[in-house]
Write a structure and sequence with these properties.
The protein has helices at about 15-25, 45-50, 50-55, 75-85, 115-125, 135-140, 150-160, 180-190, and strands at about 1-5, 60-65, 90-95, 95-100, 105-110, 170, 200-205, 205-210, 220-225, 235. It has one domain: Cyclic phosphodiesterase (Cyclic Phosphodiesterase, Chain: A, Alpha-Beta Complex). About 35% of the residues lie in helices and about 20% in strands. A five-stranded antiparallel beta sheet has the order 2-1-8-9-10. A three-stranded antiparallel beta sheet has the order 4-5-6, with helices on one face. The protein is an alpha+beta fold. It is globular, with a radius of gyration of 17 Å. The protein starts with a strand and ends with a strand.
Amino acid sequence: MRYGLYFAPSADDAFHDLGASWLGRDTASGHAVEHPDLAGLGASELAEITGPARRYGFHATLKAPFRLAAGVSETDLVDAMEAFSARSSVFEIPSLMVGRLEGFLALVPEGSAPALNAFANSVVEAFEPLRATLTDREIERRNPESLTSGELRNLMRWGYPYVFDHFRFHMTLSTRLSEPLTSRVEAAARAHFAPVLARPVAVRALTLFVEPEPGAPFLIHSRAMLASGQQRKTA
């Protein structure tokens, strides 16, 4: 079993519904969601290009999926999440946009987001004692030969290459695409997510996702509200 600490909209937020319909799966309920037919992009084509992202669900990674260290229980992790969230304040991402990242599309911050980066850094550090050391197989899965020296150091120290200076907040929307498909999907994504683009997005909670068994779809386990929010809500 693996756990990931993510940003994800609340299940009662319209942003959550937009992400679930785009990917075709609701991570709160675990149920499939019908893809919309969008201008220039049909439901069947959308289902095909979102396949890999669908398993992981609509989210942005803060602490990448990890196994628990020896002697650490799920209860310990949830308790740590609640304690961490109680001392962390609600903040806003100034705005999101549809961006291109190494061939795939994602929702990314439009401009700098120092509060977001600081929060992500603190999540990585705070939960490190609860993470089991990577196995050789887990390291190989990251293709270490393709990483930069800094990314490789992060992988070996923190279990994930893309943290701290290498962190890029993103909510994955597609598999890798080639032109002219990229432009077509990008236009459809902008239209679909228009209600939440170019406006502040509040980060009110830290969300725990769980992979029950290797290869299984990730599900929301629980959410811990940041300071000034409410107590933990279990999905």
